[in-house]
Write a structure and sequence with these properties.
Among the domains are: 224-331, Rossmann fold (3-Layer(aba) Sandwich), CATH 3.40.50.10190; 346-445, BRCT domain (Rossmann fold); 627-736, Rossmann fold (3-Layer(aba) Sandwich); 743-855, BRCT domain (Rossmann fold, 3-Layer(aba) Sandwich), CATH 3.40.50. Helix 2 crosses helix 15 and helix 11 (354-367) crosses helix 13 (405-413). By secondary structure, the chain is of the alpha/beta class. The relative contact order is 0.07. The chain starts with 15 loop residues before the first strand and ends with a helix. The strands form 6 sheets. The chain has a 4-stranded parallel beta sheet with strand order 2-1-3-4. InterPro entries: BRCT_dom, BRCT_dom_sf, CellCycle_DNARepair_Reg.
Length: 859
């Protein structure tokens, strides 16, 4: 690290560095790196007399953490913050390394990953590498000593053998690890994914797991913790002298739940640490309060002061090191009346332990919901670290929303209830307890500003207004994951008015600051006529759905949970920039298009520089969509992904879009009448069905013929299934027109062990309006016992149980029948063919031939 050999190389010429001294980067280590930087032509800046770092004059900030007061200013001014490893690697390579992979921001979950891929399909490889780069990782073409991870399906690949032969310390992981990390937006432990014997492939998901510790929750499990220090009457302690309050003015709010003795102790601690206690929000640097209301809180927050609660103050005292109150959810004042939308929720927990459980209990209460230690039928939500256990099974039986802790954390961070359909909230890696990634969600300061202390910026003094501008600019310039990179399609927030004059502003080696561095309460559906005071047949009010990501890299952070869809996309399908040169090119294209458009032509005298910019050649856009098709059983593309991609592009150029079965479509295309999930689901919407030759002829001729000439006719299948396809479509259209579904309000149970799995039957039943429930050995009574007299003399209504012929399922039949009869209902234990035929015909009927006892021999 001395750099003597290349002392005159000028590696860091025009670079001006600031070192942030913390426990992870002590003074002695920093001095060694400072000497190396100076020997390579760099300059090291020092803090001013007040201890403030001159961020606006720097080109690089060296810090192993983002926990320093000026980090927001660095984000606003787009000064890259990198770890000390960046200096080391730059010197080793004799060129400045990229800054993004060395970000200390914990939201850049792969900042320490050097990845190479082995035996993966091309599309999967590109998607994994692209997303890893977007989250701070580095790609290595070959295996080297610096490689930390090899992504492979087996150890047979030469890269894996090289790593084993040379005994490199890199980890060989399945792609499933990256997949699960992308879905969650968090980095989980690699151990269950390590080759040659990955636990996720040999262990059962329900096998026991050790409840992990939660290091990110230290000192942040409660908003009102006990003071973790022993003091005498003068507030002294045996701990070393505090420095975290040096030259800071602190205001302790009137709403803090502390007595006068404790307030005096805290006052003494601040003064002994070089700080000052003040009484006005305008005078303070740090505001300590309990609630997000009151004139003092509003004024301090509007001014950009550090606003935290007692838990944050105690954390500063214990660790004697500054940290942002936005870093941990329970370090910030709580909303007095909770978050709107949580007031009617009753939430319980499962599979969390220790600090994680205490933290979630307090977070649920702070959000305004009711926490219950045990789960009952009136619970609305179950938050679980794993998708197994008695509570999870009961939640499925009672249709209680089941999610992981990311839902409650992000709802609290964004100050509004998040949709339960976001996939990452319902994702549980098989051999991971999600308690290991709890407490990593940051508060959204912009949302807090909008809801709790809006406006009034124009009334602030100069210093407060600048702090407010810095916060806003930092929000504009930062990606969701926190890296200081401008968002696509726009330039960074302008804060040049706040910068001091500095040679760094004109630095020739990519250090200009304008450059983008690479750096609801739930609804229950109850059977008509039954009381609602005990659990009855219910249907979930939310559906998980996958959305398409825009590209492999663009928006990978905000759409991280959609990675499984993304990895199937072609790079050519992406039309959006992700920052840097492509972002600038996109702006140029948009401006050129606007300038060249007749509707936006401006007079020749207009001096705006955008009108003088030469218009770039525009990419021809695809024509508007004329037809939307859903395909099922289409064999042309089987085993040939390249041909499929090429054909899909050709169809799109002709105005035809291929959509999935959940999207609106004009026609369903199939080779014959089949009882596939796609076929039956789209049929229920009354969509006309075309034969596969329709698509074949379009691709062969390049022209779109009349769809009316391609209606599907399958006499053989119609005879076999006892249905006329045209009649079924007509009935489906009539149902849709009348606003009623085929199986509306009809209760259908399904055994958990049914052949081919529960999910497809659930999808079909609910698509046709049925009330669907899974029936298990521990389901208990889910139909309220009642008599015919209590039902007003009504005849028993039918209730169905879909089943196959396994011994475990047969054991459930008598229990189901007894339960139904006690509820004045007629039990019908049927094979799945009954529901499939009903949906295929689009006609509700019943025949005893579908009863399981007669259908299965010896049943």
């Amino acid at each position: 690290m001395t750099g003597q050999e290349d002392a005159g190389s000028g590696l860091f010429d025009t670079c001006r560095f600031i070192f942030v001294i913390t426990k992870s980067l002590p003074t002695a280590v920093a001095e060694q790196y400072e000497n190396s930087i100076k020997s390579y032509g760099g300059e090291v800046l020092e803090a001013d007399a007040k201890g403030k770092l001159p961020i606006s004059q720097a080109t690089h900030i060296i810090s192993n953490t983002i926990d320093f007061p000026e980090y927001t200013e660095a984000e606003a001014l787009m000064v890259p913050v990198v770890t000390m490893d960046w200096v080391k690697v730059s010197i080793q390579r004799t060129r400045q390394a990229q800054v993004r992979p060395f970000s200390p921001d914990p939201r850049m979950i792969f900042s320490s990953v050097v990845l190479t891929c082995a035996d993966l399909p091309v599309n999967d490889k590109e998607a994994i590498i692209g997303a890893t780069l977007a989250l701070g990782g580095i790609e290595s073409k070959d295996v080297a000593r610096t490689t930390t991870h090899i992504c492979a399906l087996s150890l047979d690949h030469p890269k894996c053998q090289t790593a084993l032969d040379k005994k490199l310390k890199c980890k060989i992981v399945l792609p499933h690890w990256f997949d699960d990390c992308f879905k969650l937006g968090k980095r989980i432990d690699e151990k269950p994914y390590l080759l040659p014997d990955p636990e996720i492939l040999r262990a059962h998901p329900e096998d026991d797991l050790v409840v992990p510790s939660s290091p990110h929750l230290e000192g942040a499990t409660s908003t009102i913790p006990s003071l973790p220090l022993a003091h005498d009457e003068r507030g002294q302690s045996g701990r070393g002298k505090l420095t975290v309050f040096a030259k800071r003015k602190v205001l302790l709010s009137w709403d803090l739940p502390i007595n006068n003795r404790l307030r005096n102790i805290l006052n003494e601690l601040v003064r002994d640490g070089g700080g000052e206690i003040v009484d006005a929000a305008e005078d303070c640097d740090m505001f300590i309060g309990q609630y997000r209301d009151g004139p003092e809180y509003v004024r301090a927050a509007q001014s950009g002061k550090d606003v935290g609660n007692l838990a944050w103050l105690y954390h500063l005292i214990v660790h004697n090191e500054w940290t942002s109150p936005f870093r941990r959810l329970l370090h910030y004042p709580v909303p007095r009346k909770g978050i709107p939308g949580f007031e009617n929720m009753r939430i319980t927990l499962s599979n969390y332990g220790g600090d994680a459980r205490i933290y979630l209990e307090n977070l649920i209460t702070a959000a305004g919901a009711t926490f219950t230690k045990t789960m009952k039928a009136d619970n609305t939500h179950l938050i679980t670290a794993r998708k197994n256990g008695e509570k999870c099974e009961a939640a499925m039986d009672w249709n209680i929303h089941t999610i992981n802790h990311l839902w409650i954390e992000e709802s609290y961070a964004k100050c509004e209830v998040q949709s339960l359909t976001i996939p990452k909230y319902t994702h549980w890696p098989n051999r991971t307890n999600l308690g290991e990634v709890i407490g990593q969600t940051f508060l959204d300061e912009q949302k807090l500003h909008e809801l709790y202390y809006p406006g009034a910026d124009e009334d602030l003094d100069g210093a407060s207004k600048r702090r407010r501008q810095l916060l806003d600019a930092a929000h504009e310039n930062a990606l969701v994951v926190g890296a200081p990179v401008p968002k696509p399609g726009r330039t960074p927030k302008a804060v040049n008015v706040m910068r001091e004059s500095s040679p760094a502003t004109n630095a020739p080696r990519g250090t200009q600051k304008s450059k983008a561095y690479e750096t609801p309460a739930r609804g229950r559906h109850i059977r008509t006529g039954k009381e609602n005071d005990t659990p009855s047949i219910v249907s979930s009010g939310s559906r998980s759905a996958k959305a398409q990501a825009l590209s492999k890299i663009q928006n990978m952070a905000p759409d991280i949970a959609l990675y499984e869809k993304e990895k199937k996309r072609s790079a050519k399908d992406s039309h959006a920039p992700w920052g840097g040169k492509r972002a600038a090119d996109q702006i140029d294209k948009e401006r050129a298009a606007k300038a060249s458009s007749p509707a936006h032509q401006r007079p020749e005298s207009d001096d705006d520089e955008d009108t003088r910019r030469p218009a770039k050649k525009q990419k021809s856009s695809a024509p508007s969509v004329q037809l939307r098709l859903t395909l099922t059983g289409y064999k042309r593309w089987v085993g040939d992904k390249k041909k499929e991609d090429a054909d899909r592009r050709k169809l799109r150029e002709l105005g035809i879009q291929i959509v999935n079965e959940n999207a609106p479509c004009d026609y369903l295309v199939a080779p014959k009448m089949v009882r596939t999930l796609k076929f039956l689901k789209v049929l229920a919407r009354g969509v006309e069905i075309l034969k596969s030759e329709f698509v074949d002829d379009i691709l062969e001729t390049g022209e779109v013929p009349d769809p009316e000439d391609y209606h599907l006719h399958d006499k053989e299948a119609e005879k076999r299934f006892g249905v006329t396809l045209a009649a079924a479509i007509a009935r489906a259209k009539e149902n849709k027109k009348s606003g009623r579904s085929l199986l509306w309000n009809i209760p259908i149970y399904c055994t958990a062990d049914i052949k081919n799995g529960v999910d497809s039957y659930k999808t079909l039943a609910e698509a046709n309006g049925a009330i669907f429930k899974v029936y298990r050995a521990r389901s208990g009574t889910t139909i309220k016992p009642t008599t015919r007299e209590e039902d007003g003399g009504a005849a028993p209504e039918p209730v169905y149980l879909l089943t196959s012929n396994s011994p475990s399922e047969k054991e459930l039949w008598p229990r189901f029948e007894a339960m139904a009869r006690k509820g004045n209902m007629e039990p019908r234990v049927v094979v799945s063919d009954w529901m499939l035929d009903v949906i295929l015909r689009q006609e509700y009927f019943f025949d005893k031939k579908y009863l399981a006892k007669g259908y299965f021999p010896g049943a």
